[in-house]
Specification:
Length: about 675
C-alpha cells in the first residue's frame, strides 16, 4: 500500500549570507554544497520525517569545513528540528524511561574532531536534572571559562511560549493556572512571589500579550482555572485563602481587576489545589483534588448542585479516593481525568508527572474510599508542572511549568508546553544564535527561550549529525535516538526570514514515497508465532505476566537454542518496483528490543532482499547487541526502539524481516522483541 509522501516543497530564495542546510528528508546532501558528508551505519538514514537516528551507529560526518564556519570567534546561527522517541513513558508496559548511562547523546554538532568532543555548539540529549532515568534536549557550548549547558525540554512535550512578563520589582512572575477561552485565546495566571496574582490573555501561538487583570488581595496565589460547562462560569482556586470562587473573566479584563462574583469556603479541606467538571449519565460533578506535601490527600467528586456561595465540606461529597501528594492541576477530557503533580502516586517521586484516570468509571463503579491507580503515567514537561487544560481543537494537554528541577530554577522553564500525553515524541525546532561578541540567544520554535554570555573556545573542524565525531558503535557511546531534519548552520544569527525558509522545507524539492510492507502478527498478539518461520533454532512468545510487552499482551523471545534466526517474507508492492529497479529505494525495519542483562545473548533484526523466484539478492543485519538495562544497572528491562535499513537492489520483489539472536551464556537465548514494522522509502 502506498502512503501519501511528503508534499512537494517550494524552493525559496536563499536568505543573505552563507548557509549550510541539510533537510535530510530526501537525500544526504547539503543543499548549498558547503559540506560533504560521509555516512556511518548501513543507510540511507533518510525518512520523510528526517534522518532517523538509531541510538547505535547512524551518523553523518563532514570534515572539510568552509572558512566562514570554522573560526571560534565568528558569529553563527545553528539550528535543527528534532523529534525524539518518547523518553518519558512509565506505565507498566514500558517500565523504564528511555535513557543511556553516558552523559551526552549528540544530535547535531560542530566543533573539534576528537574522541572527547569539544563543541563550539551542539544539540544533544543530556541527563534530566529532575529525573535521573530520563534525558532532556540541551544546547551546549565550550565557553572561554567553562562548558555551558541550557536544558531545552523533555522530548514528549512541545514548547509553546514563555510567560509574557518575567519580573517586577525584583520578584518573578511564576505561572500557575491555565484555561482556553477558545483556540485563539489562552488565559494564563501567575503569582509574583505570593504578593500578587495576575491573569494574562495571550495568543497561544506565540504567547503575545493581549490584555491582563490583577486579583485583589488576599487572592495572591491563584492556582487553577476551570470552566463549568452547564453555566459557562469560570472557577478558580486560591492557595493563601484555601478558597474557591467564580471570576467574571470579561468583566475583569475590562476593569483591570478581578470581578469575583462567588466565593466558596473550602478551608475545611487540606487546601483544594485543582478543580474541573465532568458530566456522567446526565449528572454534572465538581472534581477537586487536595494539595498536601505529605500524608493522604483525596480526590473528591461532588454533585455540582452543592457548590456555590456555601461552605463545602467532605460530607457533601459523592465519592472520594486517596490520591498522591503535591497535586498541582487537573483537567477532564471526555471521560478521562488528567492530573498534573510534582510527585506521582505510583512512579518515581519528584520528577513531575501527568497521570490519567478513567474518571467516568471511578464515578460509576469504584467505591468511596477505595484505592485507585492511574491507567497511565507520563513525565510532565518538567519537574514542576502546574495547572493543566485541554486544547479545544486538538485535545492536547497544555500545562505551564514554574521551574525545572526546582521552582524558578531558570527563566526558560517559566513556560507553557503541550503534549497528547500518549507516549510519542513531539517535534521542536532548536536554534542557537551567537553574535560574535560574547552573547548567545537560544530559541525554541522560533520564540525566545534563554540567553547566556560567553565566548566559544573551539574552532570547528567537523560537523556531525546523529552521533559523536569519533566513537565506536554502541548504545552508550553517544549516538542519538529520534528524527532530525533541517539542520542549518549560518554565518550570522538565524533571523525570522531564514527561520521561516528553513522550517518550511523549502530547501528540499524532492519527496520520498512510503510503501508499507504489511507483516502478519508483528507484535505476537496472536499469542503464538503465526506468520514467522524459524530458519535456525526457534522463536517463542511471552505473555504479559512474564515480561511486560512493549504493547498489547504478548512479545517474542528467541527460545533456548544457541542460534535463533526467524524470518517473515513480504511481497514488494508493485508501485515501488520502478524506483527499486532504478536504484532509488531502500527498506527500513523497526522493532522494539529488550534484554535479560546488558551483555549476554546479543540480538537484532535484519533485512534480506529476494527476486521474484525467490532467490536471495542481499542480506544484512543490524548490530547484534544486548540492549542496556535501567539506569540502576538491573531490572526492570526497558524496551528500546531499534531501526535498521538496507538498499533494495534492482529486481527486488520480496523482502524478509529477520530476527537473529546468539546465546552467549545460560540456557535461554534472552533477546526479547516486539512490534516489528517494515517500509520501503523510494525517490
Amino acid at each position: 500500500m502506498m502512503l501519501a509522501g511528503v508534499i512537494a516543497k517550494r524552493r525559496n530564495v536563499v536568505p543573505a549570507g552563507n548557509l549550510a542546510i541539510m533537510p535530510f528528508t530526501y537525500d544526504e546532501t547539503d543543499k548549498n554544497s558547503f559540506l560533504s558528508f560521509t555516512r556511518q551505519g548501513n543507510g540511507p538514514h533518510q525518512t520523510p520525517s528526517g534522518m532517523e537516528c538509531d541510538g547505535y551507529e547512524a551518523r553523518y560526518k563532514a570534515t572539510t569545513i568552509p572558512s566562514w564556519m570554522s573560526p571560534k570567534a565568528h558569529a553563527f546561527g545553528f539550528q535543527m528540528t528534532y523529534t525524539g522517541y518518547c523518553h518519558a513513558r512509565v506505565d507498566a508496559k514500558f517500565t523504564c524511561p528511555l535513557s543511556t548511562k553516558d552523559a551526552l547523546d549528540i544530535i547535531a554538532y560542530m566543533g573539534s574532531d576528537a574522541t572527547s568532543p569539544s563543541p563550539k555548539a551542539l544539540f544533544g540529549n543530556v541527563a534530566d536534572p529532575a529525573n535521573a532515568g530520563n534525558t532532556v534536549v540541551a544546547f551546549r557550548t565550550v565557553g572561554a571559562s567553562s562548558t555551558r549547558t541550557v536544558h531545552m525540554g523533555r522530548t514528549n512535550w512541545r514548547f509553546r511560549h514563555q510567560t509574557p512578563e518575567y519580573q517586577s520589582g525584583g520578584n518573578t512572575w511564576v505561572p500557575q493556572a491555565i484555561l482556553f477561552k477558545d483556540a485563539n485565546h489562552l488565559w494564563l495566571s501567575a503569582h509574583l512571589n505570593d504578593t500578587k496574582s495576575r491573569t494574562w490573555e495571550v495568543n497561544p501561538s506565540d504567547g503575545s500579550l493581549l490584555r491582563f487583570y490583577d486579583f485583589p488581595s488576599p487572592y495572591n496565589h491563584v492556582a487553577n482555572f476551570a470552566r463549568r460547562p452547564s453555566t459557562g462560569d469560570v472557577w478558580f482556586t486560591d492557595s493563601p485563602t484555601s478558597n474557591c470562587g467564580i471570576v467574571d473573566m470579561e468583566a475583569s479584563f475590562t476593569a483591570g481587576t478581578a470581578v469575583v462574583t462567588t466565593v466558596m469556603d473550602t478551608t475545611s479541606f487540606n487546601k483544594i489545589g485543582a478543580i474541573d467538571f465532568i458530566t456522567v449519565s446526565g449528572t454534572e460533578y465538581f472534581v477537586a483534588a487536595e494539595y498536601k506535601t505529605s500524608g493522604t490527600p483525596y480526590l473528591y467528586v461532588f454533585p455540582a448542585s452543592v457548590i456555590g456561595a456555601v461552605t463545602l465540606t467532605a460530607s457533601n461529597r459523592f465519592k472520594r479516593w486517596p490520591i498522591g501528594i503535591q497535586i498541582q492541576g487537573l483537567c477532564v477530557s471526555g471521560t478521562k481525568l488528567y492530573i498534573s503533580a510534582n510527585n506521582s502516586k505510583v512512579a518515581t517521586p519528584s520528577a513531575g508527572f501527568i497521570e490519567r484516570y478513567d474518571l467516568a468509571n471511578l464515578i460509576t463503579s469504584v467505591a468511596d474510599g477505595a484505592t485507585i491507580t492511574p491507567e497511565y503515567v507520563e513525565l510532565a514537561a518538567s519537574g514542576f508542572p502546574e495547572d493543566a487544560c485541554v486544547h479545544p481543537s486538538t485535545g492536547d494537554i497544555w500545562t505551564p511549568t514554574e521551574g525545572n528541577s526546582s521552582p524558578i530554577s531558570d527563566r526558560a522553564y517559566l513556560s507553557v508546553w503541550s503534549s497528547p500525553v500518549n507516549g510519542t515524541g513531539q517535534e521542536n525546532t532548536y536554534t542557537a544564535n551567537y553574535d560574535g561578541a560574547g552573547n548567545f540567544t537560544i530559541l525554541m520554535n522560533g520564540l525566545p527561550y534563554f540567553t547566556l554570555s560567553d565566548t566559544p573556545a573551539t574552532d570547528v573542524s567537523t560537523v556531525c549529525v546523529g552521533g559523536p565525531p569519533q566513537a565506536s558503535v554502541g548504545f552508550t557511546n553517544g549516538y542519538a535516538f529520534g528524527f532530525v531534519k533541517n539542520v542549518a548552520i549560518k554565518d550570522a544569527p538565524i533571523d525570522a526570514t531564514s527561520y521561516a525558509a528553513i522550517v518550511s522545507g523549502s530547501y528540499e524539492s524532492g519527496s520520498l514515497s512510503t510503501y508499507t510492507l504489511t507483516l502478519t502478527n508483528p507484535g505476537a498478539e496472536s499469542g503464538n508465532t503465526t506468520g514467522w518461520t524459524s530458519e535456525s533454532g526457534n522463536l517463542n512468545v511471552f505473555p504479559s505476566t512474564t515480561l511486560p510487552p512493549h504493547n498489547g499482551s504478548w512479545s517474542f523471545y528467541t527460545g533456548n537454542q544457541a542460534l535463533s534466526i526467524t524470518r517473515q517474507r513480504v511481497t514488494v508492492p508493485s508501485g515501488a518496483q520502478s524506483a527499486i529497479d532504478a536504484g532509488n529505494a531502500w527498506v527500513k525495519a523497526r522493532w522494539w528490543q529488550a534484554s535479560n542483562d546488558a551483555t549476554s545473548d546479543p540480538g537484532g533484526a535484519g533485512i534480506r532482499t529476494l527476486d521474484a523466484t525467490p532467490t536471495q539478492l542481499t542480506e544484512a543485519y543490524s548490530g547484534q547487541q544486548a540492549t542496556p538495562l535501567s539506569v540502576t544497572g538491573s531490572g526492570p528491562y526497558p524496551w528500546w526502539p531499534r531501526a535498521f535499513e538496507a538498499a533494495a537492489p534492482s529486481g527486488t520483489r520480496n523482502v524478509d524481516m529477520l530476527l537473529k539472536s546468539t546465546r552467549t551464556s545460560g540456557t535461554n537465548n534472552d533477546t526479547y522483541a516486539d512490534d516489528f514494522s517494515m517500509v520501503i522509502y523510494a525517490k
